[in-house]
Amino acid sequence: MSPQTIFSKGNFYGLPAFLEHDGKGYTAIVAGASGITGAYIVQTLAESPSRWKKIYALSRRPPQSALLGNVEHISIDLLDDPQDIGSQLLERGVKADYVFFAAYIQPPPKQNEGLWSDAEETERVNVLLLKNFLSALEVSQSLPRRFLLQTGAKHYGVHIGPTLTPMEESDPRYLRERNFYFPQEDILWDWCKKHNIGWNVTRPGFIVGAVRDAAMNIVHGLAIYASIQKELGRKLEFPGDIAAWEAEKHLSSASLIGYHAEWAVLTEGAENQALNISDDSMFTYGKFWPVLAGWYDLAYKTPKLEAADFQTVTMPRSPPPRGFGGPGSIKASWSFEGWAAKPEVKEAWKKLKDQYGLIGERDPLENAKDYLGIVDIDVLGPWGRSISMGKNRKLGWHGYVDSYDAIFEAITKLEEMKMLPAFLGQRQSPIHYHGY
């Protein structure tokens, strides 16, 4: 194995240096560039202008901040006709050595059902996004060396019930429920084979980042909850049972996803590989809850213990993605989405918005299913979400971030973006574990 050069940057350790690629002047397209991971991929590439001379950032919405000189934003709706998309790319002279596809649309859920309940529409619209974009690349005659498609840990069925664990890239597909990642992968593989193009598929877990008005962001919802509880003078309560408190749940920092995406496409041995990406940091909500409470100078509560305190939701698929046994079940004494509808909660948020000059296109409490429903899914699930990074290690990836540090950094950035009240700069309490 050839020697590698790695470096650390802030809270991120073991990052690849790519000395052999410096000065190459590559070009890249990032589709979905305003999303929670697309924005970070753009940022990662833009920080190395000798390696990436031009990055075309494609999205419907404009970028959230000023772009570096090697980034050009192009406003494109990937649901448009591929001929029109391709013509736009051709007119702008877009040519890419590498493509990063992080575009995603979350359709509204079915009435009175969960965030991801409309699997059929989710598949239809997201498969169409990818098909249109691939066709547009043909129209514009911009065929890359490597195409990276970001999917996620829902590939393994984490949203359906207990999975095979740890989750590994070679795990079989769970076919008892629609999953748009599967047709996306198949379409990409066929397209790349047709054009003799290398590919990557990356699979992060629940994502930690700071992007304006990105709904699929557990950190924003958690921090909103903590901020309002602080304003109301209440404790940081935990809605799940002991199983949810103790379950290991690996998270994925959006910054680390960006570094990993660059590494994947520039690593010869990673060509034509699906790759997990997590912080590689041990994480449970039980261990994190006292930490979050300390950041906001709050007392906290541990899970309730009596069965009568919980409502049980049984998942619809049996056997679950682990391949045997009954369906998964979730126990909740309350929900973040339900909490967001309380009058005193809404009033406290309005007060915080006025006091701190908070901004945003969408009010998170009025869109609670997007902003707080995602927190319910992450926090309440009692089954583990251990994401194996073994395959990445064997290929030479060494990136790491402590998930606590990633969350703290994301909250700080969200405060700077005026999406959260500026509480983290105030007094913080030492960590206190219950019973010690």
Automatic annotation (TrEMBL):
Residues 28-299 form the PRISE-like Rossmann-fold domain. It comes from the Eukaryota. The lineage of its organism: Eukaryota, Fungi, Dikarya, Ascomycota, Pezizomycotina. This is PRISE-like Rossmann-fold domain-containing protein.
